[in-house]
Amino acid sequence: MTDLTKPDVRPSDPCFSSGPCTKRPGWTPAALSDAFIGRSHRHKDGKAKILEVLDRTRAILGVPDDYRIGIIPASDTGAMEAALWSMMGARGADMLAWESFGTSWAGDVVGQLKLSDVRVLKAGYGELPDLGEVEFDRDVVFTWNGTTSGVCVPDGDWIADDRDGLTICDATSAAFAVDLPWRKLDVTTYSWQKVMGGEAAHGMMIVSPRAIKRLETYVPPWPMPKIFRLTKDGKFLEEPFTGVTINTPSMLCVEDAIDGLSWAEKIGGLTALQARNQANFAALDYWVASSNWIDFLAVEPSFRSTTSVTLKIVDPWLETAGAELQASIGNRLAAILEDEGVAYDLAAHRNAPPGLRIWAGATVEASDLEALGPWLDWAFACVKEEVRTDG
Fold it and tell me: Which residue of 35, 101, 307, 338 has the smallest Cβ count within 10 Å?
């Protein structure tokens, strides 16, 4: 590689993965020293730890008192699948898909549950479907923030207050980063390893009274796997929403979730988390505006994700560099920066167009993103020089 001049300042934390995301500032394994390990999670002290996660979550997110919060197996995917398998089929459905996860939920509803009355409202990467086409007498399933596309719905104004159907929202890259309008959301799911930088494998499900009514008045026609069951004898299954999880949770992960929530409270709660996220996005936005080779995949500023920031290469030079490099450019840049120990896991999601994806959630420091920009410019210059020299 040509010895181009490297930037002087390195990010103090090179972890910019969009999941699992970097830990909160100052985290060390010592944060888990009070974990209730080697003991039953059914013990009163183990249950108290789980309830602490639920109570702190409610307080920070401002979840209404009549909504229930539960811990579900298998991360956000498990929480979303439990909602789909338990509640879908009572009426027609509008499935919104503009990135890989929304496409997956649509595929499951059509291909696995085999519902016949389904409309899939699609848009390409970097775009949103026409939200004005959504019909709220139907169930509506959507991702609030498309982690793999960097596209986020701008707000909840498009969601009807007087809807007859349920709204089922995958909010895994949005919870703790944006103001979620709870009264417009009937089922909301997310995972610990996103905005709060927690450990993986556990999902969260927040359900409204309307969702509970659906569960108690509708019986799906298909067999229900145990980990998806949210009712028992025709009644809402209270246990996962009162600290008695469906399967055994990792108490190390529970302790880590408590640590992240405690950190959030100490810095000022949801407002502080959002402020950190906005500062992080502003740092990336400034760099993108000052670099002529990169741009946001989401063209419209109002629906650009501020957490999972997804970027495309727009330098005309790339069009002349060959199809192989065009397809691998994000991986090439990510590999260069990983070799330097400057940034890890920056390549776009495997299902997304080639490019970069940079996590800017609240656990990232704005100063690290400010330091990252010049390194990205340097890496791109290195790739161009490599191709020029080899060619």
Answer: 338
